[in-house]
Amino acid sequence: MTIDAIMRIAPVIPVIVIEEEAHAVPLAEALVAGGLRVLEVTLRTPAALGAIRAMKQVEGAIVGAGTVTNPRDLDAALEAGSEFIVSPGLTETLGRAAIASGVPFLPGIANAGDIMRGLDLGLERFKFFPAMAAGGLPALKALAAPFGNVRFCPTGGISLANAPEWLAFDPVLCVGGSWVSPKGAPDRAAVERLAKEAFALR
Question: What per-residue confidence (pLDDT) applies to 187?
């Protein structure tokens, strides 16, 4: 599966921080039941790699690793079974390693230079991060204008309230959001409701 196909599965990719591995499966089950099958587990906690392994057992889930910042993280994420990789930024070292691995890769960009570096590596799908802090939708519209084939997943400060505005912009294929996966032990019913609301945004 390509990163483009993964980005088109649902309008929102949950950005997940797992503190305890035991929370992983119930959270994934609730998100998938609500229609959000693409799950980005950030490598911000010691539980993250175990959570990726556990979530991969949930039927229908497409589980990837986020906050991948170097080839070492990449190798660990792939060993845990990550089906796609998301990075907060783009270095040539990480970009080349991800491309060589063949894994669908969504690197972060915040300016035209980042996009051009990605294009030089053959990449055309990017995470716009941190979306709100980097200037919001006006900034992305200005950035996207010179790069007609490029498509984005804005992440950082996206909410249920402002996601529709982002999704209405053609170069945006999906958004990343943490609001659909609150920290702590998951309340299955609440998470499934949040996921259904997010899935209905398209």
Answer: 97
Is residue 202 pLDDT above 90, yes or no? no
Q: How many CB atoms within 10 Å of residue 111?
A: 12
pLDDT tens-digit series, residues 62-87: 999 999 999 999 999 999 999 999 99
d(CA 42, CA 16) in angstroms, rounded, equals 6
Q: Is 196 a catalytic residue?
A: no
Class of residue 62 by CB neighbours under 10 A (exposed 0-12, middle 13-18, buried 19+)? buried
User: Active site residue: 21, 29, 40, 83, which one?
Assistant: 40
CA-wise closest residue to 25 among 186, 182, 189, 177:
186
Structure-block tokens of residue 72: 């070492």
Q: Strands, DSSP E only, in 17-60? A: 38-42
Helix (H/G/I), strand (E/B), else coil: 127: strand
Give the domains, in start order, of the chain with CATH numbers: 3-199 (3.20.20.70)
Claim: this prediction has a pTM higher than 0.70: yes
CA gap 202, 30 in Å, rounded: 19
183 catalytic residue (yes or no): no
Catalytic residue among 127, 141, 165, 197: 127
Residue 175, classed as helix, strand or coil, is strand
Mean pLDDT of the region 102-123: 98
